[in-house]
Amino acid sequence: MAVRITPSVLNADFAHLADECARIPGADWLHLDVMDNHFVPNLTLGAPVIESLAKVVAQPIDAHLMIADPDRWAPGFVEAGARSVTFHVEAAAAPVRLAREIRAKGARASMALKPATPIEPYADLLPELDMVLIMTVEPGFGGQSFLDLCLPKIRRARELLDRVGGDVWLQVDGGVSLGTIERCADAGADTFVAGSAVFGADDPEQMVQALRERAVA
Ligand code: DX5
Ligand code: ZN
């Protein structure tokens, strides 16, 4: 199974964002956490920052929208240059229409689930998606502890995706580190966000490679 490491820059130095991204040439994608202080109790960055960053970084941008009303805002992130746009299903009024709109604009469409949101009610939506993101912490902040209680949901998502077929990626986000990535990979995840593990390391690029090796093992 292909493995993708998609580091989150949430714990990087925001004053030098492009330089921070250049420190991890081995990353497959760059994960940008958009928070609006409504859907989550934290405020980060928006489409203008992604638009500027997309012009200067080597990797494609994976925008994780932790925002209210993604139906209104998500298409703008495709226009800003994000190649993958993830909306939270808890916040979307019309997830099918939104996924189709993101795809029609030319990006990968992805749906995220908070830890307490079950995957089963959304099983029929999976063919509309390019990725499912299972949150393994409550969204809002980097540096939180991995929630083992999310592992059964990763397994169930893997089973459902295998049944659907196609190439829908299964991403995990929150507390992913050398100590937890193996559990996620065993459960069936193939795309791994890591924030503090990568940018808290002395050598972020080496950490990206170490995470990849452990996920494949
Ligand atoms: C949390 C964000 C994550 C966060 C991950 O709400 O969605 O992407 O940056 O950070 P770590 O890896 O430190 O949990
Ligand atoms: Zn994220």
Characterize the structure shown.
There is one protein chain. With 217 residues, the chain is an alpha/beta fold. It has one domain: TIM Barrel (Alpha-Beta Barrel), CATH 3.20.20. The protein has 8 helices and 8 strands, in the order βαβαβαβαββαβαβαα. Strands 1-8-7-6-5-4-3-2 form an 8-stranded parallel beta sheet. Strand 3, helix 3 and strand 4 form a beta-alpha-beta unit. Helix 3 packs parallel to helix 4. It is globular. Zinc ion binds next to strand 2. Its cofactor is Zn(2+); Co(2+); a divalent metal cation; Mn(2+). Its EC number is 5.1.3.1. Catalyzes the reversible epimerization of D-ribulose 5-phosphate to D-xylulose 5-phosphate. Keywords: Carbohydrate metabolism, Cobalt, Isomerase, Manganese, Metal-binding, Zinc. It comes from Aeromicrobium marinum DSM 15272.
